[in-house]
Design a protein that fits this description.
Number of domains: 1
Number of strands: 0
Distance between the termini: 48 Å
Number of helices: 14
CATH superfamily: Voltage-dependent anion channel
Protein name: Sulfite efflux pump SSU1
Oligomer: single chain
Radius of gyration: 23 Å
Helix content: 55-70%
Family: Belongs to the tellurite-resistance/dicarboxylate transporter (TDT) family.
Membrane topology: Multi-pass membrane protein
Transmembrane segments: 54-72, 78-103, 123-147, 153-177, 189-211, 217-246, 300-326, 338-359
Largest sheet: none
Order of helices and strands: HHHHHHHHHHHHHH
CATH class: Mainly Alpha
Keywords: Cell membrane, Membrane, Transmembrane, Transmembrane helix, Transport
CATH architecture: Alpha/alpha barrel
CATH topology: Glycosyltransferase
Length: 383
């Protein structure tokens, strides 16, 4: 049997290929009995062919749960063990998703080009490095202290890979979207535009955690400086997109019901940007004096400025959290879809930022608020 051209297989990234037949005009007796479905439209090949990068958002949501359970200010031994269980589950998810993704592009290499230039599916490429970053963080918290320096250098190498992919995605996807033949309409914009950009902010925050477990001070310094660069790439660009998204909301009102939860996405760069710049300042305060970087007081300056920027970004996040909660209350019900993971990760990183502020001040108010935010996020997940 002659298979349909590969082009028709490629376009199934958006919707499954449908065979156009004129059965209404053709009498039943005249319908050929030899019509068969392509092997690419059934079984495991259909699953592989239609597997999109959006599935890595599951790693983002699951990963941030394990991180928060491990680092909450009001914690317990039982929460620690639960965080490890969820971490192992997240690694299993990621392994399966990565295997299917590699198989997809090996069997159907043309799909990658179409996916990378698609105005929606390409945005979810950022979920891959962000999902990986949550596992890097947990590996640093749980495994390095038990497995030693070898584990620290291993996870540093993984972080380098994650950072490179984040930069490629954050710079490449916006450029591809600007060079598309068919222009984009502002009314069709969603906060998903932030996904490829936020990957750099997440990698920057992970870099500060990786630097803390490295015994080589010079390598830790290089990691911190690279993380500041990643933060500088991601946060300003995310701010631009947030401004455009606010304009879209003002002119064209709320997005469709299926995309309503995307209004929580601006919490991602704001919460993770706040958390990242604070953690980088904490790391700089320790590493800079060890490596005689700039002046003696530079580390303390970076720490203080990082906290200031962090609390300002956190305050801006409160504004978007208010918008998102008000939108949810107004809309009341909206259908469940993959976009719901957009609710989990931004609220999680905003909670992490809140808890970090509480630890550094120190402030019981922010510590309690961070724990309450985590409970609010968990209740939304169950809903």
């Amino acid at each position: 049997m002659t298979h349909p051209p590969m082009f028709h297989q490629v376009t199934s990234i958006v919707q499954e290929t449908q065979q156009v037949t004129d059965q209404k005009e053709m009498p039943t007796a005249e319908i050929p009995e030899t019509v068969e479905r392509s092997k690419h439209d059934v079984g495991w090949r259909k699953v592989v062919r239609n597997f999109t990068p959006a599935w890595f958002s599951v790693n983002m949501g699951t990963g941030i749960v394990s991180v928060l359970l491990n680092t909450l200010p009001y914690n317990g031994q039982w929460l620690y063990y639960i965080s490890i269980i969820i971490f192992i589950l997240n690694v299993a998810y990621f392994t399966v998703f990565l295997a299917i993704t590699l198989l997809r592009y090996i069997l159907y290499p043309e799909i990658f080009r179409v996916m990378a230039t698609h105005p929606v599916q390409s945005l979810f490429l950022g979920t891959f490095p962000m999902g990986l970053a949550t596992m890097i963080n947990m590996f640093c918290f749980v495994c390095v202290s038990r497995w030693g320096d070898g584990a620290a250098y291993f996870i540093w190498a993984v972080w380098v890979f994650d950072a490179v992919v984040s930069v490629l995605v954050a710079m490449g996807i916006p450029f591809l979207l600007t060079t598309r033949k068919n222009g984009l309409d502002l009314s069709s914009m969603t906060a998903a535009w932030l996904l490829p950009i936020v990957s750099c902010v997440v990698a920057a925050a992970s870099g500060s955690i990786v630097a803390d477990v490295l015994t080589d001070a010079q390598l830790a310094l290089a990691t911190i400086l690279a993380s500041y660069i990643l933060w500088g790439i991601g946060v300003p660009l995310a701010m631009m997109v947030i401004c455009i998204y606010l304009q879209r909301l003002m002119f064209y009102k709320l997005p469709p019901e299926a995309m309503l939860v995307s209004v929580f996405l601006p919490l991602g760069p704001l919460g993770q940007g706040s958390f990242g710049i604070q953690k980088l300042g904490i790391s700089a305060q320790t590493i800079f004096p060890k490596t005689s970087t700039l002046s003696v007081s530079t580390g303390a300056i970076f720490y203080s400025v990082g906290f200031l920027i962090g609390i300002l970004l956190w305050a801006f996040g409160v504004v978007w959290l208010s918008f998102a909660v008000a939108t949810s209350i107004k809309s009341r019900k909206f259908p469940f879809n993959m976009g719901w993971w957009a609710l989990t990760f931004p609220l999680g990183v905003f909670t992490a930022s809140t808890c970090t502020i509480g630890q550094e001040l120190p402030s019981r108010f922010f510590s309690v608020l961070g724990t309450v935010n985590f409970c609010f996020r968990s209740s939304n997940d169950r809903y």
